Amino acid sequence: MDNASVSAMLHALQDPAGLPAPAWIFQYLNVLTWSFHIAFVNLSLGAGLLAIIAFMRRQQSAWARLSVAMTGVAKVAVSMAIVLGVAPLLFTQTIYDPSWYTSNVLSAFWVIFFIFSLGIGYTMWFVFYFKNHDVSHAAQAPDTTVWWATGALSLLIFDGFIMHMLSYQGLFPQKWMQWYAPHGVPVMNGMGIHAFELPRFAFFIVMSLTMTGVFLLGYARYFRARADFPADYLDLAHRIGVKTVYWGVALQLVTGLLWAFGLPSYMQVFTQPLFWLTLVLIVGVALYARQVPVGGSALQAYSAMAFYALMALIVSVDREALRVAYLAPFHYDLASKPHYEWGAVVWFFATFVFVGGSLVAFYSAMLWKAGKVKGLYTADRTVARLGDAAVWINFTWLAVFFAIGVWAYVRNIA
């Protein structure tokens, strides 16, 4: 298909309902929310790998404790990755609907397989967690227990590959008809894996090491407030964190450069300031982590995590910029999509800021303070007030939501 035909096809496949606001709002939100999502994907994979390695060295008490801790971290991180993956998925479906839905139809078998394998993988990780949720269980667990974790991690990585494949196939609309009907014969089983780019996929996977490394720096600093966390254990976590960051950054540079060399020449990636900014930030994470001393200040340790967050955000910008560049020859025009509906936009942002903000503020404050206390935590006045405010804001939101629904129903019936 020539570019003009592909452009016409993309326009025909767009949802006629369009967007309720300018497309750039959705693009920015897509970039922001995807950076949160990939951070927890990275943490789940990196913490999972470290949990397995530490479990195999559980004869030493510090390693056994680290395995237990990382097993719990990975368990929570997977659930957070799933929850935070909903927003960028919805934004992608909204602004790149022809690409996303076509890719899903072409590889429908793997879309369904993703759902089942994610559930199976997460269940397998819970089996490992139940056998390794405290040091006494870890000491008694047989060596074969690690296979539950290995199987779970393998499935989660393969699920990541499926998501990579679905996203990547959407970048090549000129090949969709060829994939759908090779030699003019439609293939309806949805089992095809038509396009993938291993350096790109590997880049996002090895980011897990970088994320887990900076997380360990924060972990080692945070729990120094607890008397039941030995200093030698936290020192070990810190040293492992620094080494893990080194490995993650080195592998990111290798896979990132391989990815860049494989991009189409018309993108001229090596002349783009964004490319060099990304390289600087990746290297900067390692350089910053290196200078964080064992037992250093909270600002030093948590700043390393903030440095990773900035790098992940710029990587998310890179990802969106590449998608725009891949679709540019076909004049995929987001500006033609908006059918403004400002009421929906105001309602969305009000929900995002007030409902989401109040809940995040409450849970963040509660978890931050509860983690510093051994045993039962009793909320102080500030946390209690945040909780009360979150409850009332949510009840108010529900009341207004149903009131608008009743008003719209009565208005349209009348």
UniProtKB/TrEMBL annotation:
This is Uncharacterized protein. Keywords: Membrane, Transmembrane, Transmembrane helix. It comes from Thiomonas bhubaneswarensis. The chain crosses the membrane at residues 34-55, 76-96, 108-130, 146-166, 201-223, 244-263, 269-289, 301-317, 344-368, 389-410. The keyword GTP-binding does not apply. It comes from the Bacteria.
